[in-house]
Amino acid sequence: MIHMFLPYKKFIPKCNVRRIEDIDFDFFYKEGKRLLILDIDNTLMPYDQTLPPKALVAFLEGLQRTGFEIVLLSNNNKDRIEPIARALKLPGLWHAKKPLKSGFKKALKIKNSRFDKHQALVVGDQLMTDVFGANRTDIDVCLVKPIKKKTEKWYTRLNRSVENKMLEKIAKKDPDRFFKLDLDER
């Protein structure tokens, strides 16, 4: 029901890919992006994994060598996020309250306001939290497919049901963009 009252354009990502490694980060770097604000659960790793795999650590280190700075932003709790952030040697914010703007604004400030919102790129797996929140804050966002849906919390599954209704709305109101972004593959 809530999807009926929300503007569908705020739920359209700049890109939609299968996994974070599929994002054309060279393109975004050339576009002036320097700060990556990354969701953790089902974006970087599944809920049932407690520490990041070595391949993820190496991938994120590669992005940093390219010139990106990275902040982790999650709605999950400190006990979940802090060990992951420490293992990745990255700043992490928990209880971000996405899609509210405050978490995204804190992520920008954590780097001492070196970056403005136009230099940032959000990467996440949910339309209702990551895409909607980033777009509300006027930050570009890439959507990835969730890594492992069957381990999601009940509230994320609830978000997914609303997400499906919003995807139907986007398909109806803006079918060209819906199919160009492969949103039918969610």
How many domains, as an integer? 1
Number of helices: 7
Biggest beta sheet summary: 6 strands, parallel
Annotated CATH topology? Rossmann fold
Helix % is 40-55%
Describe the structure.
This protein has one domain: Rossmann fold (3-Layer(aba) Sandwich), CATH 3.40.50.1000. The protein has about 190 residues and is α/β, with parallel strands linked by helices. The chain contains 7 helices and 6 strands. It has helices at about 25-30, 55-65, 80-90, 100-110, 125-135, 155-175, 175-180; strands at about 15, 35-40, 70-75, 90-95, 120-125, 140-145. Strands 1-6-5-2-3-4 form a 6-stranded parallel β-sheet, with helices on both faces.
Which structural traits does this protein have?
alpha/beta, Rossmann fold, 6-stranded parallel β-sheet, globular
Helix-strand blueprint:
Elements (H helix, E strand, L loop, with lengths): L14 E3 L7 H6 L4 E4 L15 H13 L2 E5 L4 H11 L3 E2 L7 H9 L10 E5 L2 H10 L3 E5 L9 H20 L1 H6 L6
